Amino acid sequence: MIRQYELVERVKAYDPSADEDALNRAYVFSMKAHGSQTRASGDPYFSHPVEVAGILSELKLDCASIVTGLLHDTVEDTVATLPEIEARFGGEVARLVDGVTKLSLLELQSDDTRQAENFRKLLLATSQDIRVLLIKLADRLHNMRTLHFVPSPAKRRRIAAETMEIYAPLAERIGMQHVKDELDELSFGQLYPDAAASIEKRLGYLRETSGEVIPKIAERLREVLSESGLDAEVSGRVKRAYSVWRKMQRKNVEFDQLSDVMAFRVVVADVEDCYRALGIIHTAFAVVPEQFDDYISTPKMNGYRSLHTCVMGPEGRRIEIQIRTAEMHQVAEYGVAAHWHYKQDEASTEGPQYRWLRHLLDILEQASGPEEFLEHTKLEMYQDQVFCFTPAGELIALPRGATPVDFAYAVHSEVGDRCVGARINGRVMPLRTVLGNGDQVEIVTSKTGTPTPAWEDIVVTGKARARIRRFVRSERREEFLRLGKAILQKGYRDVGYKPSSAVVKRVLGKFDVKTEDDLYVAIGEGLITGADVIKAVAPRTRRGRRVAKGEDEAKTADNVVPFERNRSAPGAGDTVPVPIRGLIPGMAVHYGNCCHPLPGDRIVGIVTAGKGVSIHTRDCESLESFQATPERWLDVAWDVDAVGADSHIGRITIVVSNEPGTLGNLTTMIGNHLGNINNLRFTNRTPDFFEMVLDIEVTDAGHLTDIIAALRATPSVTSVERARSLY
After folding, report:
1. Which 8-state DSSP code applies to residue 433?
2. Is-catalytic flag, 646?
3. DSSP structural state of residue 725
4. What is the DSSP letter of 714?
5. What is the pLDDT of residues 11-61, one digit of tens each?
6. Whole-number Å distance between alpha carbons of 636 and 604
7. In CA terms, which of 4, 53, 332, 676 is 20 to 30 Å from 217?
8. Which of the residues 76, 371, 517, 639 is marked catalytic?
């Protein structure tokens, strides 16, 4: 454990203006507050905050951060209070202690919501002061160093999993690579002990056998650079076990198949020397193809800058080399702490690390809750990068596997929402195309463009997924709202009553909803039936007729007033179908894939709780399965004005002769009649005939009928029918 005077000397060594009195008082206060408390190791609990303060001093953080490290557990684990902390150490320290205290329960628990909520608080507190995260990382690092003392294996795995999933990626994203590496290594040993032990044993053997090899290779690299007039500091090491394991998993190879488990670092004076060193090394040694990355011209999102290359180096060994300046090395190791300005009262909020943090806050605004926020944030933290360019030459960094939709949302949320297409390197490409390094991407937008639920399957960034889900939630609610209103209004007309908002509000409590809109949404979603609502608001009607005066009066609630009679409404026996307009796939109302209904068909709706209404043709075979539940049937009709301009999928079955040019004639005929083949599937083949199923984009049933008629007139077509059964 670090002694009091040792800690003060450490801080004063890099910050002579540090408040020595505050450090001493915080040391003593924390020691007294924790008293006789002990840790799982049996050590005094006070040793933990002292070690956390020691880690923060290694990062050369300001005095307030060191004091907070000493006090960070006092409010939660002792009788000390925040007002007491503020009175003794000032408002700045109290705010930092408060921020860390709120987050100190961020441990994996069976209650995922609690974990996600605490993580959300962590990012919010960090957005106000980055030191909260730095102190939390130091706290977690010391806890991981002593995790082996925790007696419960399940608890150790739980803490290690959280560290690997959340804290290590957070450390990486703010550029603190050495913290990230140690957290990963310690977590790996707990989560995969057998693999860790096996790899560490092999690495240990390699260190023994190559104990003289690494210095020899480093010296040879120095000589090569020096001979070309370049002075450089060269160091080498064997990679960590977790890094080796990740590469084995990524490349799906065994340990013996890895040839680049040794890494060397070349530190030079300036950026120009970085590229000079690269040229010298590539001239002297054979380069391993496709193993070069330039993070100087295109830095990582966390501000990391370096040149990476892989060569067949001295001793005939394949080695990895990183080339950087001393300043780049400091940033690579310490991230935001390398640019610390708090001690000069110049809190920095610029740079890639802070932009990434603000980006997470954008995701927070789009997410529906803390759990979704945690999910989307993990997407942002885990993946490697690709670098793409806008037509104007602006660099956009994206996770590997990103698509043009991710790119569009990275440019701006509105661009993503209005995206309808993309040109990649000048060519029109599908939105699901995976982007590669150096791609130039131009997003095509439309004022009428909107996200679709299907985009969730092709995006990999948290920002894009959060924005798409937000739109889908909003649009789905609007559709449920419109549908619920239409269903209820139809019910009103059927019983001959005019709705009264005041009466509806009086029965909201019966259905456990707060507003009229919530009631309509629940009806549209199928969670409440229109008949139940009408029965509640108009108890004197039954089965589409008005109850005679005096009939079942005792069953009528005294506090419910019947609706005003609507003189212009249809009679009790009349029905008014619910209008169906153009649909966005995956929303509240959707078309049945079994029959592909088209405008002009006679249709019926089937209500499914939580999913809304699926539209089927009245002769669809799948309707037989709903005969026993007539309450789920809904009378619907096309809203012709609303759906006339939309495209719909019509399905046909066709038998054609097996002759050269038949398929060409078939597609030409469909195209000439303004149809677009959406899908084609062969169902049977013989030497003489092909049987196929075609999905064709058309405007309505009449359009499909015209195409069918034209196909029937084609000599090579034996038969063509509209598909009416399940496939």
Report:
1. P
2. no
3. S
4. S
5. 999 888 889 999 999 999 999 999 889 998 889 999 999 999 999 999 888
6. 5
7. 332
8. 76
